[in-house]
Amino acid sequence: MPEGYSGEGFFATSFDKVIGLARKNSIWPLPFATSCCGIEFMATMAAHYDLARFGSERLGFTPRQCDLLMVMGTIAKKMAPVLRQVYLQMAEPRWVIAVGACASSGGIFDTYSVLQGIDQVIPVDVYVPGCPPRPEAILDGVMRVQDLVGQESLRRRHSERYKDLMNSYGIQ
């Protein structure tokens, strides 16, 4: 052993990095598409842009098998409880991308019936701007989530800060 090396923390730190590398390269997205941003997502999955290059080729259409919720399009206030239920059915760790202006802020629909941003009902990790965003922007959003996933400590989800965030959304 090198002089001055105590060996403490080496295994846990390396283990965090290995798990982070595995997670970031095997994200399983769950598309929750309600309008035109969903069409752009379809283009992102097609051969020209090919989201599969980033380890996200396995789309899941059941929340229990996915770890990345991609909300694309306008979310009506009546749809908000459904979106929240889908989020809660996903296993931890889970991440969320708000794709497009409507999912991020209600977009041009400043009306009583449209949710003015999904961050009112679930926590959002990455916002992808645009109306609708181009496939390149969606790819950038996925890469930003990959960076977040790769750097996230295994202990983050058990921290007081994370628990406070979940409590602010009413999630235990």
Automatic annotation (TrEMBL):
EC annotation from Swiss-Prot or TrEMBL: 7.1.1.-
EC category: translocase
GO MF, any single term: 4 iron, 4 sulfur cluster binding
Subcellular location field: Cell membrane
GO annotations of cellular component type: plasma membrane; respiratory chain complex I
Residues that, per the record, bind [4Fe-4S] cluster: 36-37, 102, 131
Keywords for the protein's UniProt record, in alphabetical order: 4Fe-4S, Cell membrane, Iron, Iron-sulfur, Membrane, Metal-binding, NAD, Quinone, Translocase, Transport
Coiled-coil positions: none
SUPFAM superfamilies: HydA/Nqo6-like (SSF56770)
PANTHER family: NADH DEHYDROGENASE, NADH DEHYDROGENASE [UBIQUINONE] IRON-SULFUR PROTEIN 7, MITOCHONDRIAL
Subunit structure: NDH-1 is composed of 14 different subunits. Subunits NuoB, C, D, E, F, and G constitute the peripheral sector of the complex.
Family: Belongs to the complex I 20 kDa subunit family.
Function: NDH-1 shuttles electrons from NADH, via FMN and iron-sulfur (Fe-S) centers, to quinones in the respiratory chain. The immediate electron acceptor for the enzyme in this species is believed to be a menaquinone. Couples the redox reaction to proton translocation (for every two electrons transferred, four hydrogen ions are translocated across the cytoplasmic membrane), and thus conserves the redox energy in a proton gradient.
Record NCBIfam families: nuoB_fam, PRK06411.1, PRK14820.1
Protein name: NADH-quinone oxidoreductase subunit B
Organism from which the protein derives: Chitinophaga cymbidii
